[in-house]
Amino acid sequence: MKKKIILVLVAISLVFVSGCNFFKNPDPELSQEELYKIELVKEIQEFEKNFGFKETANFQKYDPQKTAYYLYYYTKKTFMPYSYEDPRLFLMMGFKKPKEPNSEKYDVFLYECQAVAGGKTITKALMDAPIHRILEVVAHEDFHEQINFPLGVEEPIVTLVGYLVAMEFAKFKFGEDSDVYKHLESGLEVRLALAPIFVKYHGLLTNLYLKYKLGELSREETLLRKEALYEGMEAEFLEGGFKIKSHLNNAFLAYEITYDRYFLLAYEVYSATDCDVLETIEIFMNLPRDGDFFISLGKIKQIEKEVMDYLKDVIENKS
Question: How far is the C-alpha of 114 from the C-alpha of 68, rounded, in Å?
Answer without folding.
Answer: 5
